[in-house]
Design goal:
Keywords: Cell outer membrane, Ion transport, Iron, Iron transport, Membrane, Receptor, Signal, TonB box, Transmembrane, Transmembrane beta strand, Transport. The chain has about 850 residues and is mostly beta strands. The chain folds into two domains: about 80 residues, no CATH class; about 625 residues, Maltoporin, Chain A (Beta Barrel). The protein is about 10% helix and about 45% strand. The protein has a 22-stranded antiparallel barrel. A five-stranded mixed sheet has the order 1-7-8-5-6. A hairpin with a 2-residue loop joins strand 33 and strand 34.
């Protein structure tokens, strides 16, 4: 059936696509884009489009219909323009400039204010992320509106899980939006005390194309893949379209020995209906990555003696991960009438992570001090955590854990691998049989996210919910060599049971527009309840048990914005949000049958700012204050292998942010942003005190958070004319505090209820505070140590591309060449730096060693060349 002219179809499709993100994302408001103008079609001969619920329309009726659609979807855009929070958006150009060979979905975000990121490797290799000083595990992440982070542990998973690869890669992204702090309820993800990162996948377009691509680069990096877009399969606005993309990559990695092999696949299909007003879509992503990581930072003296890229050789130690991610999303967005849109998403996320770690027991200094090699190589092997285990150790009274030998559960005897002449009473001899481990984890999440948008004359009401359940289980094994078999009942030190978390979350918000649509009020509230159960069938740390808990929290939000003259928007907001404790923090109560579960961490955000928005100039300035109460704290006693979890921490984050873009000419755009963050602890407590979460420490009231730069900034220029485009950018990372170890003071008095100061051995801290009375005495009367800050640095990056259009060829339309140069000036710098352990953990106690500096160095100059052919 004829539905009108091509122009009329495009007008209608464009109007509808504004809401669904097919053509124009509402997030352009954060990127200084003017509102789209959708002009009603001029009268024309022929039948008009079919109005839903009616028959063919006259040209006049069609114009009225499209005008209504214009007003309807324009309101959706205004919801983003008048948002009462700082918002940063990253689009196609920034993604292309980052480069999927060199960057990660986290490094991409460093182009926005208050975001710091570093990683061990190029590509998706162990990224460490903070937003306004809040670490990745405390942030919410969404993928096309569904929760992307692990519901049980936060982030992508627990420490040293899912550190290579990701559920979505740079090549699969179409855009990313960062909502720091507490966003409005319909933008806020699950369980965050620091912000929400919203990733969006690529979608098929109406125009067909096929593309093959590949590239080479530094560190023996290669990649190749293809992308096929069907365009409309058939005629008419309601014709379906599909996109298939696959890419595989290999890199020898950085530092030496950290090779990664990965592959990622995206399939997306969209089926419009109701004359393009509604959409049914499906998305499947399958990504995998297999590679080595550095579980512990590299001693600076070894880097200086060998090379900038030095890493421990695999013959001495290694940690390796093999990760897989499968995501499937089925969504529908239905236009009911000019006052109502209903939508919903069904989703399933499945991930698996195999972690293997090895440390050579025959290497000097590996398990005991050696003056010629006083370095901690790898803390992630069983012996360092559990000491002597097995029937021989128990028979001779050596084992520190009564559960170290249980016939039928754990019958492995590490002593059989001890060198000739070793005595069963020599605890160190057991390390030869406990020098390697393998941990297998897999999880499955299923869920549903219904939503309704209601449009009234002065109210835009959004009602939504998230109902989801994640199930996770795993096994842990120890052995002497990486190729030993894994056998439950023999060398397994954790298996059986599993963790489940079910969450029920609902939100309601109302955008109220008053004073001729100048004043916008946005009240809202989210109610969340979770049920968690953790069944432990067998573990060296405890008897079989089932831990379960129900928790609930209400999270209010209120935002206000006012449209001032001269394109200015003033805004302010207050929000409360909560993060639930990881299920591994649940323990048996004192009665042995009840569950002790930490209450949620709570953040309170206060924010105010001003935004200037025109088609040529965009400016934003804001100030914020965030306070986190009831922070999770834990203490592990290595002599009893028991851990204690509580809500004893508190911290605050204060700062201000600036960002802007200016279109100098039609071809040249200038951009930049800067942010200042001051983050410090409000009390004393045990904590993981670095963003990498690889260091256990004791933090003191008033001291700054380690690894959080005070100043961050981006600046650059972008040129785009015809077939040529270029982008030169700089990233400034300011000074940041480092950590060092507290000394061994076994004779010091008690400073924490029930915990002697000797428990602080191996703990790290940004610095010794000027301690009052009992705390100074507890630290052995030591004077305060001067704060040490890691120096700031500036990295320059360059991106060049040229599109060569081919004429006279039947199939190839164009060739595109691109060049990415990261760290253009070849700067050598430290990303993460601290004074390494002053003692090696040994069989439940600590052996002092000389203090030394340890670090992750920054990735040196890296060059990547890519070419793609479009058909």
């Amino acid at each position: 059936m004829q539905v009108g002219s091509t122009r009329k179809r495009l007008l209608l499709l464009t109007a509808c696509s504004v809401a669904t993100g097919m053509v124009f994302s509402a997030r352009v408001w954060a990127q200084n884009a003017p509102a789209p103008v959708i002009v009603p079609a001029a009268p024309a001969t022929g039948a008009g489009p079919i109005i839903p619920g009616g028959s063919a329309a006259t040209p006049e009726a069609q114009a009225v219909h499209i005008a209504k659609i214009k007003k309807f979807y324009h309101e959706l855009l205004l919801k983003e323009k008048n948002i009462a929070n700082a918002v940063s958006s990253v689009g196609h150009k920034q993604i292309e400039a980052e480069g999927e060979q060199a960057g990660s979905i986290q490094s991409l975000l460093k182009q926005t204010p208050s975001v710091n990121e570093y990683q061990q490797n190029i590509g998706q290799g162990v990224p460490v992320l903070t937003v306004r000083g809040v670490r990745n595990s405390q942030l919410a992440q969404t993928l096309d509106g569904i929760p992307m982070q692990d519901l049980i542990s936060g982030s992508q998973g627990a420490f040293l899980n899912n550190n290579v690869g990701s559920p979505i890669t740079l090549g699969q992204l179409s855009a990313t939006t960062v909502y720091p702090g507490v966003a409005p309820p319909d933008k806020q993800g699950f369980a965050t005390v620091g912000g929400t990162i919203a990733y969006e996948t690529k979608k098929p377009t109406s125009k067909p194309y096929a593309e093959i691509f590949g590239g080479i680069g530094s560190f023996d990096t290669t990649h190749a893949g293809f992308e096929i877009n069907t365009g409309r399969i058939g005629s008419g606005i309601d014709a379906p379209r599909a996109l298939l993309r696959y890419n595989q990559q290999y890199t020898a990695g950085f530092p030496d020995g950290n090779s990664i092999r990965s592959g990622d696949m995206l399939f997306s299909i969209v089926k419009p209906y109701d004359e393009g007003l509604s959409h049914l879509s499906g998305t499947i992503l399958f990504n995998r990555a297999d590679g080595y990581i550095s579980a512990f930072s590299i001693p600076v003296p070894l880097q200086q003696a060998n090379s900038y890229s030095y890493n421990f050789p695999h013959s001495l130690s290694f940690s390796k991960e093999n990760n897989k991610y499968l995501t499937a999303i089925l969504s529908d967005e239905t236009y009911i009438n000019p006052h109502l849109i209903v939508s919903g998403k069904l989703f399933m996320i499945r991930s698996s992570s195999d972690f293997t770690s090895f440390m050579n027991p025959y290497a000097p200094g590996t398990y005991s001090p050696d003056p010629n090699f006083p370095y901690q190589v790898n803390f992630q092997v069983p012996y360092l955590g559990y000491g002597a285990l097995g029937p021989t150790a128990v028979a001779n009274g050596v084992a520190t854990n009564p559960g170290a030998y249980k016939p039928g559960f754990f019958t492995y005897d590490p002593f059989m691998f001890a060198p000739a002449g070793c005595s069963p009473t020599n605890a160190t001899c057991y390390s030869y049989g406990e020098s390697a481990e393998q941990i297998n984890n897999h999880s499955t999440t299923i869920g549903f996210t219904p939503k309704a948008n209601i449009f009234l004359p002065h109210n835009d009401i959004t009602i939504g919910a998230l109902i989801a359940k994640e199930s996770s289980s795993g096994q842990s094994f120890m052995y002497a060599t990486p190729n030993m078999p894994n056998e439950i009942g023999y060398n397994s030190f954790g298996f059986g049971g599993g963790v489940q978390r079910t969450l029920y979350s609902a939100y309601l918000q109302d955008k109220i527009s008053l004073l001729h649509n100048r004043l916008h009020l946005l009240p809202g509230v989210t109610f969340t309840g979770i049920y968690t159960s953790n069944i432990t069938q067998f573990s060296l740390q405890g008897l079989p048990a089932k831990l379960q808990n129900w928790g609930a929290v209400a999270e209010p939000y209120f935002g206000i914005s006012y449209d001032l003259p001269y394109h200015l928007v003033a805004y302010a907001s207050y929000g409360k949000s909560a993060r639930f404790a990881p299920a591994t923090d649940y323990t048996l109560g004192t009665a042995g049958s009840t569950t002790h579960a930490p209450t949620p961490e709570i953040v309170h955000l206060y924010e105010a700012g001003m935004r200037y928005d025109t088609s040529r100039l965009y400016l934003n300035a804001d100030i914020y204050y965030q306070k986190i109460n009831d922070q999770f704290s834990f203490y592990t006693n290595y002599q009893t292998l028991l851990s204690f979890y509580s809500n004893t921490g508190s911290s605050q984050y204060r700062g201000y942010e600036f960002s802007g873009k200016y279109r100098l000419t039609h071809d040249i755009e200038l951009f930049g942003n800067a942010s200042y963050t001051k983050a410090n602890y409000l009390n004393n407590f045990f904590a993981q005190d670095t963003p990498f979460e690889g260091q256990f420490g004791y933090v003191f009231k008033g001291e700054p958070l380690a690894g959080i730069p005070n100043w961050l900034g981006n600046f650059g220029v972008e040129y785009d004319r015809g077939p040529f485009s270029a982008r030169l950018s700089g990233q400034y990372t300011g000074q940041q505090y480092i950590t060092f170890d507290l000394p061994v003071l076994p004779n010091s008095p008690v400073i924490v209820s029930g915990v002697p100061n000797s428990a602080l051995s191996q703990a790290t801290s940004p610095y010794y505070p000027t301690a009052p009375g009992n705390l100074a005495q507890a630290l052995g009367g030591l004077p305060p140590v001067q704060n040490f800050k890691l120096p700031g640095h500036i990295l320059m990056n360059l991106f060049l591309s040229y599109k060569l259009r081919l004429h006279g060829y039947d199939h190839i339309q164009s060739l595109k060449f691109s060049l990415n140069i990261h760290n253009l000036l070849g700067l050598h710098y430290y990303q993460h730096f601290f004074l390494a352990p002053a003692e090696i953990p040994l069989n439940g106690s600590f052996v002092p060693t000389p203090t030394y500096a340890s670090s992750f160095v920054g990735i040196p100059r890296s060059i990547f060349f890519n070419v793609s052919a479009k058909f």
